[in-house]
DNA sequence: CGTAGTATTGACTAGGCTCAAGGGTGGTGG
DNA sequence: CCACCACCCTTGAGCCTAGTCAATACTACG
């Protein structure tokens, strides 16, 4: 259970800042950042923002996990990314001027800070390092999504599951992967039933261990091989 | 046939600049841009850059069309985007510092200008409007790719073809869509044979007309409906 | 201890891929 | 200018992955 009273995290001493966009901030920057942010507690399955809404600022993950997803015609989710501690979410929409193209909601209870659009854009204007970090991040994600598209169109569900387990193992490290079967299926891009059958198959082959809802990667090398490329 | 001697396009009078990243450039900027760029003629099916190589600069489309793609394990291409006149290609890799994650090559003979990484990054540092334009563009593409991923994982090939024809009709406007069957299949994300069978079906239903390799959209509304969402 | 959500299993179907063979067409060189 | 070759396009047959529908087990929480 997270500390719900943790409403006043201090950016200067925040232990997850080192892998965030704000890692390069000097003391003055940190004071400004700290004063402009607000920190909130979120329960499991609570939305941060919803596709179609207008963005009002960015979110900075202090603790917890958040899924970023779109909904297809039928309403089925496709999870594009799972954000963990240190990640800044929703800055794409700050620049485009458009409504959110994606939705975000918590996968577990989380402590998440919020910075208004105004404050965030001001920081970018005055801080070249932050700006470069953001451009690098946008570029990196763009490259990742191209690979994602190719995986979706050319890999089998089996290959994509192997690939996904590797990514998720890394995101959840040092803990076990902890997602509902439905969320995992929506990340892989398949039906829940198909996912379950494949998980069993992976287990029988000694690639993973299933601890109820939690999944443990046993043989990373075989998974890499199975995922291809 | 394009004018192969068109080696010295002038940015100040370039007729495609109005829909490019450089639309906001003042006279001084344009002089600088014009002097730092070089313009080359490319034959059909000539590469601009290849996945894995290190980027040396960006390309600005003067005339022609270019496909941007990745290759899956088997070597099959997945076309992510088709760039037309006015578009600037390859700037993502300028910021990430990584090798290209994608390849680009011409779909028809083209005149394309080149700006070195140094010059391009200098321009960005000194020109806030250009910078904002680029951040907006990166953001826009990021949103588009999220939709692309969802389409790939949730739509049928039939739906994706309808969707693709709408996008391509727009890119090729006012001309007819002019791609090889294989390239079209690689854009839709399917096998060439499946694509051909579906094209015939679309033709029988009066959605498109087939003029040998060229395709004409006849009933845009029905295609929209068929594409879903 | 009931109830709602979550997970699992089975049976069936079909969309779409692969392999294989045949028909067109445009570009080039003689 | 024409013939040939290479490449592109098209069609057919068969199979298999993975989606859907339906029924049943499990689990956590009030």
Explained architecture:
In chain A, the strands form three sheets. A four-stranded antiparallel β-sheet of chain A has the order 1-8-3-6. In chain A, strands 2-7-4-5 form a four-stranded antiparallel β-sheet. The first copy, chain A, has a three-stranded antiparallel β-sheet with strand order 9-11-10. Chain A has eight helices and eleven strands. Chain A is globular, with a radius of gyration of 19 Å. Chain A has 229 residues and is α+β, with helices and mostly antiparallel strands. Chain A has two domains: 134 residues, Sandwich (Jelly Rolls); 73 residues, Arc Repressor Mutant, subunit A, CATH 1.10.10. Chain A binds a DNA duplex (30 and 30 nucleotides) through helix 7.
End-to-end Cα distance of chain A, whole Å, is: 39 Å
Number of strands of chain A: 11
Instruction: Give the number of domains of chain A.
Output: 2
Please describe the biggest sheet of chain A, giving its number of strands, its sense, and whether it closes into a barrel.
Answer: 4 strands, antiparallel
SS element count, helices of chain A: 8
Q: Determine the oligomeric state from the structure.
A: homodimer
What is the H/E string of chain A? HEEEEEEHEEHHHEHHEEH
CATH fold annotation of the largest domain in chain A: Jelly Rolls
CATH level-two architecture of the largest domain in chain A: Sandwich
CATH homologous superfamily label of the largest domain in chain A: Jelly Rolls
Uncertain segments of chain A: none
Radius of gyration of chain A from CA coordinates: 19 Å
Largest contact between chains: A-B, 45 and 45 residues
Fraction of residues of chain A in helices? 40-55%
Average pLDDT of chain A, rounded to a whole number, is 94
Q: Structural class of the secondary elements of chain A? A: alpha+beta
> Which CATH class of the largest domain in chain A?
Mainly Beta
* Net shape of chain A: globular
